[in-house]
């Protein structure tokens, strides 16, 4: 499910491999944000900040 500004919109995919690129694209088109991938157990598997921002001291992404 996609959650942005407390609004829920569902997207159905068979695998995370299909869902992640779509989520990236939607997030970038919406102006950016944080993409969080969770496993079936609810634990966070991956996080990535996407899009353009105006933060003068952005966090350093060590995962990618």
Summarize the structure in words.
The chain is an alpha+beta fold and 64 residues long. It contains one helix and four strands; from the N terminus they run E-E-H-E-E. The strands form two sheets. A two-stranded antiparallel ribbon has the order 1-2. Strands 3-4 form a two-stranded antiparallel sheet. Strand 3 and strand 4 form a beta hairpin. The longest helix has 14 residues, at 16-29. It is globular.
In this structure, how is the largest beta sheet organized?
Answer: 2 strands, antiparallel
Query: Shape from CA axes?
Result: globular
Averaging pLDDT over every residue, what do you get? 79
Oligomer: single chain
Order of helices and strands: EEHEE
Q: Give the radius of gyration.
A: 13 Å
- Helical content class: 10-25%
Alpha-carbon distance between the termini? 23 Å
Layout of secondary structure:
Layout: E1 2-4, E2 7-9, H1 16-29, E3 33-38, E4 44-50
Antiparallel strand pairs: 1-2, 3-4
List keywords for this structure.
30% strand; two-stranded antiparallel ribbon; 22% helix; 4 strands; 64 residues; globular
Short description:
The chain has one helix spanning 16-29; strands spanning 2-4, 7-9, 33-38, 44-50. By secondary structure, it is of the alpha+beta class. The strands form two sheets. The chain has a two-stranded antiparallel ribbon. A two-stranded antiparallel ribbon has the order 3-4.
């Amino acid at each position: 499910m996609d959650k942005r500004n407390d609004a829920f919109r569902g997207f159905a995919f068979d695998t995370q491999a299909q869902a992640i690129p779509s989520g990236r694209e939607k997030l970038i088109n919406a102006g950016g944000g944080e993409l969080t991938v969770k496993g079936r157990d609810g634990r966070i598997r991956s996080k990535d900040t996407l899009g353009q921002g105006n933060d003068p001291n952005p966090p350093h992404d060590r995962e990618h």
